[in-house]
Amino acid sequence: MKKRTYFKIGELIKEDILQARYRIGGRLPSERILAERFKVTRAIVRDAITMLELQGLVEARKGSGVYVIAFPMVVKEQSSAKQFHAFSKPYSTSLHAADIFQARQVVECQVAELAAMNMTKPDLIKVKNVIKQELTCKSHELDDSGFYISVAQASQNTVLVDAVQRLLSLYQSSRQWPAMRAKLFDEKARLSWIAEHQAIYSALQCKQPSLARNAMWQHLQNSKSLAEGL
């Protein structure tokens, strides 16, 4: 049986969130804009949004719009080899961001190393495009989740992609998250943050696993040090 159209639209919106087109806490485009983009009726878009609400990904706020509140997680269906997006349960906000960054160093440095070995040309282009978006976006739109997810996807390991997504969700549920984001509104901090992403990208482009690993470690270490002061 073919999947209903609204389901397909919902999956496309999930993919947009994974690629950082829509950030956590950000508002989705209006029903009209989404309907025009996907060339479907507004009723279908409405059903897709309802599906995402039931899955815990978005939240409709009366008089304001629909907002992204969680990352989709990539998991495997028990009945087939196909993949679908599901959602993790909310994490405790009692965890400190510095501890989460330490865990991210353990996972994402290995991810960067694997990405340098396994990534394809389309993967490299995807990472590059994410950095381009970071350079052109407005301060209040800053969100580097798409960068880490694109690097994880380049590793060609879906288990690691899931792990990175979970760690990002955990980080964005920490008490330090709002303050960390606020610091990136500073232009100097923003450019430094993007320069570190570019250093990781350069290592991936040169297919230098150890260099990619070290660049990711230093980037997360800098963020960890920043979080420790909050």
From TrEMBL:
<dbReference type="GO" id="GO:0003677">
    <property type="term" value="F:DNA binding"/>
</dbReference>
<feature type="domain" description="HTH gntR-type">
    <location>
        <begin position="3"/>
        <end position="71"/>
    </location>
</feature>
<keyword id="KW-0238">DNA-binding</keyword>
<dbReference type="Pfam" id="PF07729">
    <property type="entry name" value="FCD"/>
</dbReference>
<dbReference type="InterPro" id="IPR008920">
    <property type="entry name" value="TF_FadR/GntR_C"/>
</dbReference>
<dbReference type="InterPro" id="IPR036390">
    <property type="entry name" value="WH_DNA-bd_sf"/>
</dbReference>
<dbReference type="InterPro" id="IPR000524">
    <property type="entry name" value="Tscrpt_reg_HTH_GntR"/>
</dbReference>
<dbReference type="InterPro" id="IPR011711">
    <property type="entry name" value="GntR_C"/>
</dbReference>
<dbReference type="InterPro" id="IPR036388">
    <property type="entry name" value="WH-like_DNA-bd_sf"/>
</dbReference>
<dbReference type="Pfam" id="PF00392">
    <property type="entry name" value="GntR"/>
</dbReference>
<protein>
    <submittedName>
        <fullName>GntR family transcriptional regulator</fullName>
    </submittedName>
</protein>
<keyword id="KW-0804">Transcription</keyword>
<keyword id="KW-0805">Transcription regulation</keyword>
<dbReference type="GO" id="GO:0003700">
    <property type="term" value="F:DNA-binding transcription factor activity"/>
</dbReference>
